[in-house]
Amino acid sequence: MRVRAVGAQALLLEVDDPAAWFAELRRRRDLGELEVVDIVPGAQTVLLDGLADPAAATESLRGWRTTVAAGTPTGPVVAVPVVFDGPDLEDVARLWGIGAAEVAHRLEQTPFHVAFCGFAPGFAYLAGLPEHLTVPRLATPRPKVPAGSVGLADRFAGIYPTASPGGWRLVGHTTTVLFDPARTPPALLSPGTRVRFTPVESTVEGTVALDEKSQR
Description:
4-stranded antiparallel beta sheet; alpha+beta; 18% helix; elongated; 5-stranded mixed beta sheet
């Protein structure tokens, strides 16, 4: 771990497993071992903002270890119904060396989790794809990607919460609302949340179901 000071009340941690450290730091905050306002994971970092005592936190961090195994998310499970009909589905199938139907099946079987959020309100970077299934972004981004589009880029999957430009390879769509300012919290997916893509035929389109058994 490398710790960098950011302003007067924040620290930026460069870590190997941001998701595991995010869970560990939230646990320590809940136990009263860490006085901090916000804990924000990134692709390779975790930001601690609003620290009561950055110097003391820096000293404590030197002796802390994560209690969650690397790559083992423990958050709630959200099922997202998806229609796999994206314009780049055939391209992804070609890159993976399989058929389009098998792409959908593999994505349905992948245990995704939210590694971090960004790009747009409600946009979650979903980790879980094995290294050999990474795909490159489009050479030329689309000027407008419809809201609800499910895409792949590099080692992540993601769902566009609103219409916006984007260069991810689109494999399907969902009517699930990812961000609603009137909802508490507004974002459906937060760091640590586990996500399952489910075929629309097996659920009610546009609804979100919590997998209660997986949370026991």
